[in-house]
Amino acid sequence: MIDQPVLFCLHYLGGSARTWRPLAERLGPHARCVGIDLPGFGDEAHKPGGDVAAMADHVAARITAEAPPGPWLIAGNSMGAKVALVLARRHEDGDPALAGLAGLVLLAGSPPAPEPMAEERRQAMIAWIDADPETRQREAEGFVSGNVGAPLDPEDHACAVEDVLRANPDAWKAWLAGGANEDWRERIGVLSIPALVVSGAEDGDLGPESQAALTLPHLARQRHEVAPGAGHLLPLERPEMLAALILAMLTAPPRAAQAPTLPPAFAALMSSDRVNTRLRSTLRERMREPDGPFCLGTDERATLAACLDRVLPQTGPGRIDLARRIDARLAGGTGDGWRFVALPPDPKAYARALRSLDGAAREAHGRPFTALGGAEQDALLDRATSGDLPEVAGGLDPDLMTCWFEELRGEAVRTFLAHPAGLAAIGFTGIGAGGDEADALPGYRLTYLNEREAWEAPVLEAAGDAR
Amino acid sequence: MNLSGQRRYGTDEVVDVVVVGTGAGGAPLLAELAAAGLKVVALEAGPNFDPAAYGFDETLADEIYWTEERLSGGSTPEAFGANNSGTGVGGSTLHWGAFVPRADPRDFRLNTESGEGCDWPIDHAELVPFYDRVEAFIGTSGPTPYPWDEARRFPLPPVLRNGPAQLMASACDRLGIAATDAPAAVVSRDFTVDPSVPERKACINCGFCHQGCRTRAKASMDVTYLPLAVARGAEIRSDARMHGVERDKAGRITAVIYRSGGRDHRQLCAHLILCAGAVETPRLLLHLDLATGSGQVGRNYIGHVATQVWGTFADEVGMNRGYPSSLITEDFTRPKGADFAGGYLVQSLGVEPLTWANSVARGRGLWGRALTDYLKQYNRVAGIGINGETLPCDANVLTLSDETDALGMRKAQIDFGYGSNEDALNRHATKLMREIWEAAGAQDVWVLERVAHTLGTCRMGRNPDASVVDAVGRSHEVENLWICDGSVFPSSLAANPALTIMALSLRTAGAFLKGNR
């Protein structure tokens, strides 16, 4: 539990301290937001801006001046997130001025690696910032509306456009031509500070797959949340959601890498125009753990999670919460079109089967299934497969456990492979069969043994021996 | 498909025919009847899809599968849903594999030949002109000449082979088995057949045939017969779930009741043709107590023996690329020295990852580290599989369960199990497939027991006591009721069924027009 911390907030390119007002209002007394204008932006627009290290110096000085009384956190959106990562590295390297840093909130963050961005767009942005007022106004409008999933409240939109227009063009260009391209991967390494990572499902270059590929590998203790329908300007688009996630993080900071990472090659394919928009949005939403409703009891869910760890072990770092997803599917009532007639409907079959497993564990070892070692759990699952678990009150008939365990195995792999991390792990390139132009889908030109197309190669190589 | 300009009929207008279901059974006859000037309305339980919006994803493809729950019993319970049951305008052809062997002539006289199973009331020769017409219209790709049928001509050259096909071809060559490019209802070249049916571009080898064809290269009904039907004046109502009928004193059907938009509608009609497939057609008949006098509805449910053999190769296979089943051998339609009636076809198999992994987890029974390690072999595995004759049998039956669905209709329960003939055929085929795969260099070979397709339950026959419809699909009991789908099959035939269902559909349409003019 981190009690009433200060949250120092670092804005996106063209934003300012006031970008954080909606979030500050919603966090209220639980955490005090202190928005900081980065050099060249907001009230610091008279400054020319600088590289990432210079921005970090600027922020460190502000934090020192602010002298927060207790532990504090840094939130960064996009450009601001890269600065936050650098400060976290300095903290872990023992910088006494940053000793109080207790957590990171990285929102659609620019990663330690050079930011993925089309060169054409970069050059266009560098050009229009110095153009005539009419062009600047038009482009600034387009920049703000192009970076959100749905139109902002008109007042927030107007503020955001005004912030872009008051930014120092030199600072704007310094980021696009410099800071965004700086490679901090080696220097940042792997941070152990707890971090909340949030991405927008409709973000262009820094969406969920980019975060999973480029940011999560640098964080040993992270939670990654995907904001459905949101774009890049998350503090303006999703202040409620962010406030709730930040409060949850203060209560229980992540202790391990929770979300699975993606190989950069798979993330790049997923972001490319070889993947259709419907599929990309769907894969991104599947990177988010479902909110419910759920139907299993707490003990049943725990037994299911323990069981799935044995059925489909995930080596990490990070893992897909298969039990949570299956529980949500059971509660949603959707199915695959059939079930064994001998089994009761799915939710009941699961609840009973899990009770059987847990009861068998208690009978054999005097402990719940979740408290057993892996080998003991495997032995019970082996007995379930052969139908010779004991009868348990409220459980499933021993011979039906065979059918249920078959169902569970199928559901585990289907759930795993619906997630991009699952597809990436097996080196699947089929998502790249074609984008949005239905009349000009590329498909596969090569289908013979041992033939690879150029666009497939990085994904296949990242999956190791596969193909 | 585009339904915007279609003709509309009033529900109080007595249309000549209501067709229930728009798949391989319903679509061709809908086009035929409309072209003959009849007022025809098709009711499709599922939505109307835009193929361009399919997602190239197995989970998204749930939208084209019939995922309302069915109960599977018997000694070899069959999987439904994505395994064989579709929904939407186009029915199961939205997800079918488009593998189009013609039925073997001997399979129609199996009882005469072997004393097992039963003969069809029609002869293969009667179907040939209908096969020809269907293939010319939907655009089939394959090798001409075709080794097992000299008369067969494919309008288009074969689709590209993929890795599993190459592996099977070289192994068959070594073993002296004839194997060649598959007969596929996928256009290998840009294809136009009729001005009222939009051009279909050549297959792009994406491999997602079973998830809905985004380019319309695969011959689903919504890109072939249904646009033709609409151009000839048929109306197709999607999201229209038939669940009732009204009948007059003589027992003739006078109206069809269907649920759409949350309420019931009543369409007056002179005739009803049920084309809802071998599960939903008998389920409706049993639910409505229609044509049940002989006690035959629901009986003789049939699947196909569809066992697969899998192996891991030194080659990079990448089996998701290309048309999934691009090689065939028909050398085993009557294996020499076999101890069973009938025979089977063998095809090469490439399978998308969820479907494959589901088979591995359920069918191979792997879990734990063995499972995760094996899944990572995805790009090095390939399969071969069969489609084998299944005889009708008293124990294999569709009944109504006590559980009900959202409409209050009782769910279907399907009991299915192999008899001794299927077991013997399966042993023979499994041994052969192992030999082929070992000759191909496969390691870590394993067998997936699997049942495919849904057939039987309303079989056709001359004897009203032993069948539900006559040889052209007309009910023995209800004068203005017809059936045309896989449910009328008296036996499974070794061939995959959809092409034969389409041929039967044209034939039923002809008989209907002849008898009702």
From TrEMBL, chain A:
GO terms for molecular function: hydrolase activity. One of its GO terms (cellular component) is membrane. Keywords: Hydrolase. It comes from Methylobacterium terricola. InterPro entries: AB_hydrolase_fold (IPR029058), AB_hydrolase_sf (IPR050266), Gluconate_2DH_su3 (IPR027056), Thioesterase (IPR001031). The keyword Hydrolase applies. SUPFAM superfamilies: alpha/beta-Hydrolases. Residues 7-114 form the Thioesterase domain. This is Alpha/beta fold hydrolase. It holds the Pfam family Thioesterase.
From TrEMBL, chain B:
Residues 193-224 form the 4Fe-4S ferredoxin-type domain. PROSITE patterns: 4FE4S_FER_2 (PS51379). Gene3D superfamilies: FAD/NAD(P)-binding domain. Keywords: FAD, Flavoprotein, Oxidoreductase. It comes from the Bacteria. The keyword Oxidoreductase applies. The keyword Zinc-finger does not apply. GO terms for molecular function: flavin adenine dinucleotide binding; oxidoreductase activity, acting on CH-OH group of donors. InterPro entries: 4Fe4S_Fe-S-bd, FAD/NAD-bd_sf, GMC_OxRdtase_N, GMC_OxRtase_C. Belongs to the GMC oxidoreductase family. This is GMC family oxidoreductase. It comes from Methylobacterium terricola.
